[in-house]
Amino acid sequence: METNEKQITLQVSPKIRYILLIGIFLCSLLGCGDSPDIKRGKELAAKGDTDAAVKAFQEAINHDGSRAEAFYQIGLIYVEMVDENPSGTDYRNDAKEALSWALDMAPRRAPRRAEISLTLGTLYWLDNQKSLALRQFNQLLEKSPPHDIIFKIAGLTGDAYYVQRLRTEGSDDYEQTFTEKGDIMTFTAKYNDDYSPAISPDGKWVAFASNRLQNAELYLIDLTNRSLRQLTHTDELDEYMPAFSPDGKSLAFVTERTRGGVMLPPVQASGSDPSRASIYFMDIDGRNQRPLVDADGADRAPVFSSDGQKIAFESKAPTQEVPSTPGSTENNDTLEIYVIDIDGSDKTQLTHNDVDDGHPTWSPNGKQIAFSSMVEDIYQIFIIDAAGGTAKQLTFSDASHYHPTFSSDGKRIIYVSNAHNHYTLWMMNTDGTNKTQLTNHIGAHFEPSLSRDGKKIVFSSDRSDHMRIYLMDLAQPVQKEKLKARLVGF
Question: What's the Cα-to-Cα distance from 424 to each of 51, 91, 102, 231, 438, rounded to whole Å?
């Protein structure tokens, strides 16, 4: 959203304040719809003309007494400015001021009041004004708030759903994990990170990478009996980024020669990285390993189409003998998104940018692909038709966004964001609206993978010191009483 930098000051005289209070009383009795000024302000805000929108809302305040709604809409504009410019202190203060006015003026039983209180409480929470935030949240929870209010408070203050750590290791602090033969699965504590999780379509298995043997190998854990199987045994190679086929019978994965030391892939790879990586297939038992295609660059982040006939992946663009010009779409040091048949034929380049594009994900109907792309040194999430075309940008804030994955119904996207300088899981509609935080726990959260039935998300996190694999149960949202107990601890 384009805005100028001048601060818009809200001044309400005692006389106007008296008129507003009378208007509030009448509207609480008779009910009021949006005034012409409110409607005009919303239309201008939707077009991105925020200055004109604020003026329209101020007209509503000064002339027709549309009170709480006008202040609320002004507050939302400033909140969006805060999202796009987190360091904008003036925007934060203006948002709080406008929302405080809106809350004071909203009738106690007005449906909008809960939204205003939640938005104001969220601003306080993000500014580390915990006592002010908790006052808003506790007042909401004392009543019977809608589920989405509970959900948003839960995701802002911790986990929105029940989360458990998968017992992928044999630490003395946890139950031992056993191999299929009944032996305790041992590992070297120094090399103790698990990452790159992928959940099987039926939700019964999780494949993941681990450097417990000093190089990255792939493992498979049974969620029913906790048995663990090592799938790869290659001392000189690192294998990671597994992806299940739709029928759950095979895995695609990335392999590259080990660089020594502990292998942990970056949040998003760079095309300038000189490493070489290839995509391989194997059966779910680790047998029948074979390459997708002979690669002379770096192919990573494979994902199957819903029919299992194609793979989307990120790869360094092929070398082109073209002059380097400003705005050129041919850059040998960038990653692009490709689509290829599973037999290695019909390789098609989907994106043609002068920046890195990565971590593609197919929509359930196979018609669209979401991915991350760098915009002015910040990663944003885009969506593009699987057949090609112009990509649509879904995120626009100053935070970077990574690892998109579609929900099972294709209506939402789960992703990673470092909003508020913290890597957490988020969810949004596929048009980029209704962004909601799913986790806000100590540590970073990466690589969400969603089961086909939409009931489970696995992800990696270092919330327990080392990177570990966690499972979020979407059938078990945090309930109001547990959330109230959580807030007592702050």
Answer: 32, 24, 30, 29, 7
Instruction: State the greatest distance between any 2 C-alpha atoms of the chain, in Å, as a whole number.
Output: 81
Following DSSP, what letter does each residue of 188-240 receive, concatenated? -TTS--EEEEEE-TTSSEEEEEE-TTSS-EEEEEETTT--EEE----TTEEEE
Cα–Cα distance measured from residue 25 to residue 427, given in angstroms and rounded to the nearest whole number? 38
Q: Which residue has the tokens 């294998």?
A: 239
What per-residue confidence (pLDDT) applies to 188? 47
Q: Which parts of the chain register pLDDT below 50? A: 1-10, 12-13, 15-26, 28-31, 170-175, 188-190, 320-331
- Write down the pLDDT at residue 5: 37
Q: How many CA within 13 A on the CB side of residue 218? A: 30
Give the pair of three-digit tokens for residue 115.
């939204």
Residues 404 and 426 sit within 8 Å (Cβ to Cβ): no
Domains and CATH numbers, the chain: 14-145 (1.25.40.10), 161-190+259-280+290-488 (2.120.10.30)
Query: Helix (H) and strand (E) counts for the chain?
Result: 9, 24
pTM for the whole thing?
Answer: 0.83
Indicate the pairing of strand 205-210 with strand 217-222: antiparallel
Q: What are phi and psi of 257, to 5 degrees?
A: -65, 135
Closest C-alpha among 13, 25, 106, 29 to residue 68: 106
